[in-house]
Amino acid sequence: MAEHPHAVLVRKGFEAFSRGDMDALRAMMTSDCTHHVPGSHPMSGDFKGQDAVIDMYRRIFEETGGSMRVDVRGVFVDGRGHVVALDHVTAERRGKRLDEDGALVCRIVGDKVSDLDECVEDLDRANDFWS
Predict the structure, then answer these.
(1) Looking at residue 2, what is its pLDDT?
(2) Collapsing DSSP states into helix, strand and coil, what is residue 77?
């Protein structure tokens, strides 16, 4: 059985992110897409609109010197526009190493991502890494 189109879209998004392909990511998002990043660090917050989301992704690559890697462990859909992607993230930044599991909860409208809620394994560890 073929994978659900929403799962395919999210997997393609992870692949584009891993390649640093911001044009492909932009094409997968609604114009008012929002990415919610938990925590109380400089990279956390609500990034609304394609430009804000893409700029945040660019900053992630800059801050980690391109070391961030995201391995998708599983993608789950409900067939009503919700996708949960389990992942494992590694990155290095200013002598610190991030190595943890996480999840991305996505809302799909039509054939584009309209909302991304990032969930991390350990908020304190994320705050320390990005601070």
Answers:
(1) 87
(2) strand
